[in-house]
């Protein structure tokens, strides 16, 4: 499922969980809230509703029609068993930088395996991409691999995307959020930011975020919260993300409390993608809810069955820092390039022979692609 639809669903579920109530008959009804409590409740409700409002304001008539065409062609393809593509992606991921300051053991970039011609996308190449996607796209994630804040033009890129009316988001390890960068992040117009915090103590955090410092990250989050307050801004919506591993699963509840106390808008938990998982892995969590694997006989397999279908390659365009269009975010090494948007037309690449053949093979036998065999989509 594409990022934009996921965001919309999460926002609605979050709002619903906060405002739903049970109608019960009581002999002594509860005391009505005070004026102060009512104001606080209204303010909290607005914080929940604001991301939805921001998202919906990005919809234009052309974008709405494109979204409908996009989903219709996907469902028609799933019924026919052959690819039909109408419209263009309404969600995009553009890689800001393919380098990182950390050495996370399950990350290709952290292990030095991500090889791109350009370590960071140039402003010119980014502008070329934005010009091609802006009319029909709604959502833009300025991330694929690497650390976005290592791109010297990151704030200008956000402003360019904002100027085109796109809902912008980025994912970061949070080590570059000094007071100046925090202020620039807020004033750039970024709508949403995901900050990885995989532990509540430094010793646990560093087991995966090797080379990182939890204290630096937490200080950066505080800087971001303060920067928002300083100009009375509701954006960016701050999400703290916790990838659940064996070594940090005991800190799940502590993480929830941490997110609330530090001023984040939301905390999220994510299952860990482990490359050599079939025979088990020392980092594999045994908390079933947060594991994407389960034991079958003497080996581990994906919990979700791998269907010959994938919505991502209909709804989401993914561009590397070199401008290469790839099938999805799991193609981290750009093993299946569909063409270069710096020199070729994105519309033609999206509906071109290479991508249509790829979609056809997915509908026939998805397991033939290694990038799909560790995907929980």
Question: What does this molecule look like?
Answer:
- The protein has 377 residues and is of the alpha/beta class.
- Helices cover 39% and strands 12% of the residues.
- It has 12 helices and 10 strands.
- α1 runs antiparallel to α2 (35-56), α4 runs parallel beside α5 (154-163) and α6 (179-188) crosses α8.
- The relative contact order is 0.12.
- Residues 18-28 have low confidence and may be disordered.
Question: What is the compact description of this entry?
Answer:
The chain is an alpha/beta fold.
Largest sheet: 8 strands, mixed
Strand composition percent: 5-15%
Give the overall average pLDDT: 89
Class based on secondary structure composition and strand pairing:
alpha/beta
Low-confidence stretches: 18-28
Rg over CA atoms: 21 Å
Number of DSSP E strands = 10
The number of helical elements comes to 12
Strand order within the widest sheet? 6-5-4-3-2-1-9-10
Helix content range of the residues, please? 25-40%
